[in-house]
Amino acid sequence: MSTRTSALDSLIFGVDIQSGDVRGDAPSYAVVAFDGESIERDVVSGRKLRRRIQSEEPAIVATDNTYELAEDKGALVHFLRELPSETKLVQVTGDERPEPLSRVAARHGVPYAKPPMKEAEAAARLAARNVGYEVSAFTDTTTVKVARGRSTGGGGGWSEDRFTRRIHGSVKTATREVESKLEDAALEFEKEVTEKYGGYSQALFEVEATPAEIPVSSRRSGDTRIEIERERRDGIEYRPLAKRRDFVVVGIDPGTTTAVALLDLDGMVLDVWSTRTADTAEVIEWIIEHGRPVIVAADVEPMPETVEKIRRSFDAAGWIPGTDLPVDRKLHRTREESYDNDHERDAMAAALFAFDAHEDQFDRIAEKTPAGFDRGEVTARVVAGEESVEAVLDDLSEDEESDEESTEHDPRELTAEEKEIKRLEARIERLEGHVEDLKDTIQQKDSRVSELEEELSEARREERREARERREVTRLERENERLKRELAEAEQANEELDGKLERLKELWKLDHSNFADVAAEKQGLVPVKPVEQFTKDAIGAAEESYGLAPDDVVYLRDASGAGRATAERLADRDPRVVLRDGRLSEQADEVLFDHGIPVGPADDVTIQEIDELAVARESEVESVIDDWEDRAEQRRREKKSAKLDEVISEHRARDPAADG
């Protein structure tokens, strides 16, 4: 039974060592670039191979032995670190205990031959079928570091203070941008920040994702830098490309909505899935991801063409009922299982009835399969390949006893020069390790220097704050003295006003002996409310100071210049009479006349003023009103006469004969 997947659409590099040895002379490599259809072959050096991987970014770099690309574990980790984020290194022959490439190729029907270029092609084709193990030295956790892009040290003073605050503010801003992007990508992460003056000195994000999944890239720009580093594993991990469950029984209900159900070989429901959008290829891919079919079943007879196509793609056995399964039997058989729709129920019923039909056969195979053999593999070959249990066991035993081809390239005997090179390389490695230690020491010292610089900057800032506080205290003391002087001046002015008020009271008592006890109107006096100018602003100021109410006597100190709108505003207050100094404009006079508001000269009334206070005699005010009434009556008669003359003139103009 074949467990192949469909070919990948992405570019795959198959690599095998062409000449030389990775532990000695610079090796050359046979490289096959395979995209599922076309093949490109080349022989390159190790350096050129790395450059080509970086520039073309294949989805997979496939080989039969990863230690043909790196001489030891440390070099392999370095090689993995240099790979583009979307590129996987795949060992197609297995994990830590690989099989011979020839056996793996034969098992999956891939052409194989001894020359390195043929082996590279076989590796590429196997990887395209999801055969092999991804080699990984890193976890799926990535650290994103946002830090200062330059030192905060400077010449001191205010400029250094602003410079430090700006850098830390930039780091804080960049941190927020990174956090926002991680949240938008719905990634899980933990954040740790180091707060400093003006913002952050650095921020660390531990993100549960690979660098390719993180919407942030490493960069250094001005005041900030972003570094991305994937977390190292303790060792090298081999993960199968095709993550499958055990051998399964598959039930399929095709149609507008396609449903698939999977059972294990004990009849337990493993999974059920339905889709309205996936085509046959996608259904096959879903089945591959979840198990290796032994039987593919349908609930109708004959087997639908789509189900038959899927069965053939797996070389699995088929099962259909003698007649279409009725709904009541399907409901009864699936009564203990959960499903979302009728299509999932029908797919599950097909799988369950297929299992029922083969349950006795599965049990017999299990009884005959000794420990140490894969029961699923034996069952699949017996049911789908129609072989006997004994024949399958014999075949599997022969495979185990066959001569093993070594997949490791045994290092040849090194020459004296190569041994010297190895010794020097070991020495270089030790020196590089020492350099790394020294770099760590320098980094620690730099960190300590940065901390001391921060403390010094903080001390300087504290000193400047104290100086600012002293200057502020001095300023406040001066301000306090100024306010005291203003208070004294205000108190003096208040005393003067109190005295003036007392004098006014005395004056009123002298002029009007009982004015304080009797209303002003009963003493023959009437209050007058002065308005400085006949303008809207002056009217508003008078209203704000002492208010203008109906029947008030209003005194316009300057009656000239008012327009219709200003006169309308005064007329809206409905004063008793308007006393004026100066002449009214024709428009204002017309408005006041139309509203029936008496207007008279202020010279006809004796107005007594003390500051804003004013009074006039009632008799004089009445006299002004009477005079205006007489003039108003005469004016109305004149207007009526003029109107009559106008009507007559218009009539005569329309009827000349009547005039004759």
Model description:
By secondary structure, the chain is of the alpha/beta class. The strands form 3 sheets. Strands 1, 2, 3, 4, 5, 6, 7, 8, 9 and 10 form a 10-stranded mixed β-sheet that branches. Strands 19-18-17-16-21-20 form a 6-stranded mixed β-sheet, sandwiched between helices. β11 and β12 form a beta hairpin. 28% of the residues are buried.
Oligomer state equals: single chain
The structure class reads alpha/beta
Count of individual helical segments? 17
DSSP strand content: 15-25%
Helical content class: 40-55%
Task: Please tell me the overall pLDDT.
Answer: 83
Count of β-strands:
21
Uncertain regions spanning at least 5 consecutive residues? 1-8, 403-412, 513-522
Calculate Rg over CA atoms.
Answer: 52 Å
The dominant shape is: elongated
Q: Mind describing the biggest β-sheet?
A: 10 strands, mixed
Termini gap: 131 Å
List keywords for this structure.
660 residues, alpha/beta, 10-stranded mixed β-sheet, 6-stranded mixed β-sheet, 17 helices, 21% strand, elongated
Task: Itemize the secondary structure elements and their pairings.
Blueprint: E1 12-19, E2 28-34, E3 39-45, H1 46-56, E4 60-63, H2 73-82, E5 88-91, H3 101-107, H4 116-128, E6 133-148, H5 157-184, E7 189-196, E8 199-207, E9 219-221, E10 224-240, E11 247-253, E12 258-263, E13 269-275, H6 280-290, E14 292-297, H7 305-314, E15 317-319, H8 327-333, H9 342-368, H10 375-385, H11 389-401, H12 416-511, E16 525-531, H13 536-545, E17 553-556, H14 564-572, E18 577-580, H15 586-594, E19 599-601, E20 607-610, E21 613-617, H16 618-654, H17 656-659
Parallel strand pairs: 1-4, 4-5, 11-14, 14-15, 16-17, 17-18, 18-19
Antiparallel strand pairs: 1-2, 2-3, 5-6, 6-8, 6-10, 7-8, 9-10, 11-12, 12-13, 16-21, 20-21
